[in-house]
Amino acid sequence: MFFGIGMLVLFYKPFGVLCQFSGEGTTLKDHIDIPNIYPAGRLDKDSEGLLILTDDGRLQDTLAHPKHGKHKVYWVQVDGAIDQGA
Prior knowledge:
This protein has one helix at residues 57-64, and strands at residues 8-13, 38-39, 49-54.
């Protein structure tokens, strides 16, 4: 599958930042000043990590929408011990 990629941005989203450009609190707009670019996926506010942003709607949909079945791997670090209840 070919995509006519206009722009790709790799951004390390800090802890406490909402993974959107609008809303209350600190958002992507406080870190990225590029018009018409959107995240291809999401990270929770309480997460940090690499985020791909693009202005290519087809690429964004292919990477982010579950209907495409893209395999994703997440490495996590947690505070405290993980018990059976967790």
